[in-house]
Amino acid sequence: MKRFCKIALLFLLALPFFIQAQKLEPKEITALINTFKNDIRGPYKDIRWFCTDGSIRAPKDPCPDDIGPGVQHARYKDLVGALGKSNHIFLGQILAYTDVDSFWDEENDHSRLKQYQLDKYLKSVDNGWINQKGQFYRGAIQAEDEQAWGMEFYQWLLESDEVLQKEYFLVRQSLKDIPHNGDDNVAQKMRSESKVISDLYLPFMDLRVKIHSQPEESDIQKVVGFKQAHTAKLTSDISRKIDQLVATMKEFHKPVDIVALPKIASLAVGTDLGGKIESFASNSALVNNEKLLLEQASQLLFDIRNGLLEEKRPTARLQLLDVSLKLEEIVFKSSSNYQPETLKELLHKICYLGMAVTGSGYLEQWEWEQLASNLTSYESEERSLGELTEVLNRARAAVEWSAAMVKANYDAIVREYVAFEPLTAGFVDDKIRGSVALHLGQSVGDLGNLISTESQLANKVMGLQNQSTIRGLNPGYAFGELVVVGGSSDDIEVSSDKIYVFQRPPSDLKPVAGIATVAEGNMVSHVQLLARNLGIPNAALSDENLQDLQQYNGAKVFYAVSNKGNVILKLESQMSTEEMALFSKKERKEERIEVPISQIRLDENNVLNMRNVDADDSGKLCGPKAANLGQLKKMFPEKVVEGLVIPFGIFRTHMDQSMPGEKISYWQFLTKMFEEANSMLASGISEKEVENYQLRELGILRDAIKKIPLEDSFVNQLEKGFKEVLGSELGSVPVFLRSDTNMEDLKDFTGAGLNLTIFNSVDKDKILQGIKDVWASPYTERSFKWRQKYLLNPENVFPSILVIPSVDVDYSGVLITKGISAGTDKDLTVAFSRGAGGAVDGQAAEQYLIMDEGGYTLLAPARERFYNGLPKTGGTEKKKATFQDRVLNEKNINEIRELARTIRDRVPKETHSDYQDAYDVELGFKDNKLWLFQIRPFVENKKALGSTYLESITPKIDLTKRISLSKKL
C-alpha cells in the first residue's frame, strides 16, 4: 500500500509538466481528488491579498490605502489551475477569484456555474469532499467577499432580458447556491445530512427516505426518538450528526416570515408586483389556512415569473427572485400540511402546484398554457372517468416535464463528473426532491391511484409504491432476467433474452426482450419504432420506480404491457400456466419472416437519377428509402430535394472482386460463412457459439468492405450524376448518404435505423469512403443481431444508397399518420427536434397528437440542450437550445395535417397499392418551408396487438362513468 502511495505521489508531482498539453483521464482526476481530500489545504496553495491595482501581497502585508481596498483568499494549487485548462474542470472555485463572464461560461453551457453547484452538493454529502481537511484552512474563503461577488455577479447577469427569457430555470436555481444575501439552502443541507447518517448507519434509511420524499415537521420527533432507541449502537460521531440534523430540520420547518417579504423586495414597492407581494404579506386569512396559503403563494410565484421582465432594474429583479425562492419554500412546506379530503380539493391542489412549478421554472410558460385548460377545470360537481383520465395524463405530463427540465440542464455535467466522482449521481435527484415538483408528483400519484380504482386499469409491478407513474408505451410480453441500469447505458452490453430498465436507452440499442425507461426520448424514435414493430414490451417509469426495482436486479421476471398501457411485472415464481405457455419454442419460431428476393435486379450497374425510380422499384433496384422518395418527388416536386441512387447491382458487382487475404470473392466469403453456420447448427453446436463465429467472420468482412476498391466506371458515373442532377461537382456540395437495404420496411419488419447514414459529407474522398462504410454497415453486430433474430434469410441483405443534398433544417422530425397514444387511425403523431436528425435518434423531442378534425395536444416539449447544425463545410456542429419557445408553430402543424391527408389519399392511388395502414414520414422545416425526406409504412406488431393474453389483461373501461368531485379520498 505504501509503495502504491509513493507511485501516486510521484505521478501527481509530475503532473504540472504535462497536464496542460494532455487531457486527464477520469481515474487520474480521481487520484487528484483523493490527494486533495487528505491535504490540510485541500485544493489551495496559500493565502494572499489581491489588491485593486492587480498586485498580490502576503497575508500579513495587506493592500495599502493608497491603492484601494483588496480581498484576501486562497490561491489554487498549480494542479487545480492546470486541470481547468486541460479538462475545463474547476475544483474548489473561489468566487472572489473569478471573472463573472468566465463563471457564467456561456460557450460551455454554463459549465463553471453548474460545477460550483455540484461542488456545494458534494461537500454536503461527503464531509467537505475535496476540502475534507481543507475546510479548516482558515481564511481560504471569506464569506463576506463571496457574498459581495454574488451581488456583483447578479447585477451584471440580470441586466439582460435575454438571459431571463432563455435561462430562467438555471438563473433561479443558481440563487440557491451562490451567496448573495446571507441565505443558505437549508433544504439541501437537511437532505444531505440525513443521507450521510444513513450511509454510516443503515437502520436510519427509512427515516432518510421519509425526509427526502415527504418531509414533515413531525419527522423531527421521529429522528429524536430514533436516536433514543438506538443510543447504545450509535458512535459519538453519528450521535453528533443526528443532533445537527435535528437542528437543521428545526430551521427548515420554521415558518417563513411572510410579513418580511415586502422588505426583501423593497425596490419593487409601488410596482404591480410590489403591490401583489404587499397584499400577500398582509393577508391575515392565510394564517392557519394551508389550502389558501398554497393557492396564494403559488399564484404569486406564477405572477412574479410572468411580470419579471417588466422590471428593468437588476437589483430589483434579484429581490423579486429572492421572494420567488421564499414563496417556493412556502409552497413546499404548506403542501405537506394541506391534505385534501375530496377529489375536488385534490384537483385544486394539483392545479396550483402546476402553477408553482411553472413559476419556479420547471415548466416554461407556453408549456403551462398547453396544460392549463385541463388542470384548471375543477369547479364542476362531477366529471366523467374519461375526463378525469385526461386530467391525470396532463398532470402526469407536468411532473415528467419538470423532472426533464432538471435533467436537461444538469445531465451533461453530472455525467462528466460521475466518471471520476460517483457521488455526483445523486445531484439531479436531490434537485428534484428539493423542488415543488416533488409534491406535485405525490398529488398526481394520489389521483392516479383513485382513477386506477375507478377504472380497474391498475399496474401490477412488483408491489412498488406509486405505480401510477408507470405507463405502457408499446404492447407486448417478455420473460427473462431483469437488468436495472441506474446510470449511463452507453457501455452496457445487452442481451436479447433479458429485460432492461434504463434511465435512457442507448440510441443504438441491440435486440432485447423488453425495456422500460425513465427518459423515453420520444415515441417515434428508431428504438421505439423497432420495439413497437417487433412486439417488445416498452414502458415509461419514474426515477423512484427505477430505484425501487434495483432490489430485483438479476431476477427472472415476466413482463407485459397491454394494448391500453397497463403494465405487469412479476417474478417467475408468480407466473400463471397461461403466462408460461406464451414462451414455447414453436411460437417464437413462427414470428420470423422472410426477405423477398425473387424480384431483385442485380443487373443494374448505373448510378440513377432519383426522379427515375418510384415505389415499384423498392426491393428490386434499390431499397424503399430511394424508391419512396423518388415517388414523393413525383407527387411533391417542390418539397423533395434532388437525389442520386446507387442501386443494389453496383454493390453486388463490387462484392464479386477478390477479397484481399482470401482465395475467394467478398460475396463468396459471406455465403461460405452462412453455410458454415448452418452446418455448425446441424451438428449440435450451440446457437451462442455459432453466433460468435458469425460475428467474428462478419467483422473481417466489414473491415474488408471498408477498404474495397471502387471501380473507375462507378466513380465516373457518380461525378457525372453530381454535376447533372445535384448541380455541383462531387466534393463541393454537402450530401447525406443513406443506407437503403432490401430488408427495410417489409410487411412485418421495419428495420428502422439499423444501418449507417453519413451526415452532411462534402469532401470527395470522405464521400467515396462513406459509400464503402454504408455498404459495410449491414454487417455490424447490431444490424446482424436484429436481422438474425427476426428474419429467416438474413444473409440476403443488399444495400443500395440514397445520395441527397443536405438541408440545414431549423427543425426536423417524424410524422406517423396515426394517433399512437390515443390508438386513433385518423389522428397524427409527430415528434420534432431542433436541427437535423434528433427525433429519429431518440432525443427528448417535442411531441404532439394532432387531431384530424382540428386541434392538437402537446404530449411532451423538447428537452435537449444541444442539436445538430449542418454547415456547408460538412460534418455537424453542436448548437445550444433553450426551451422558452416551442419548436413547431401553428402554421407548421396545419401544414403537417394537410400533408397527412394528401399522403393518405394519393400515395395508395399513385403506387397502385392496397395498403390501408399508417405511414411513417421524415420531414423538416427550413425558414417555415416543409421538406420531405422519407416515407415508409408504419409497421406494428400484429401479434402483440391481437394477442388474446394482452387483451385479457386489458380491462374494459367505461369512460362515460360519472364521478362526483365531492368523493372522499
List keywords for this structure.
969 residues; alpha+beta; 6 domains; eight-stranded mixed sheet; six-stranded antiparallel sheet; 26 strands; 45% helix; 14% strand; disordered N terminus; pyruvate, water dikinase activity; magnesium; ATP_grasp_subdomain_1
Number of self-contained structural domains: 6
CA-to-CA gap between the ends?
Answer: 61 Å
Helix fraction?
Answer: 40-55%
Poorly predicted residue ranges: 1-14, 16-20, 585-590
Please give the radius of gyration in angstroms: 31 Å
**How does the helix and strand content classify structurally?**
alpha+beta
User: How much of the polypeptide forms β-strand, as a percent range?
Assistant: 5-15%
Overall morphology: globular
Keywords: ATP-binding, Kinase, Magnesium, Metal-binding, Nucleotide-binding, Pyruvate, Signal, Transferase
Catalytic activity: pyruvate + ATP + H2O = phosphoenolpyruvate + AMP + phosphate + 2 H(+)
InterPro entries: ATP_grasp_subdomain_1, PEP_synth, PPDK_AMP/ATP-bd
EC number: 2.7.9.2
Give a verbal description of the structure.
This protein has 969 residues and is an alpha+beta fold. Strands 5-12-11-7-8-9-10-6 form an eight-stranded mixed β-sheet. Strands 21-20-19-18-24-25 form a six-stranded antiparallel β-sheet. A five-stranded antiparallel β-sheet has the order 13-14-17-15-16. Helix 15 (290-307) runs parallel beside helix 17 and helix 16 packs antiparallel against helix 17 (343-359). The protein is globular and about 85 Å long.
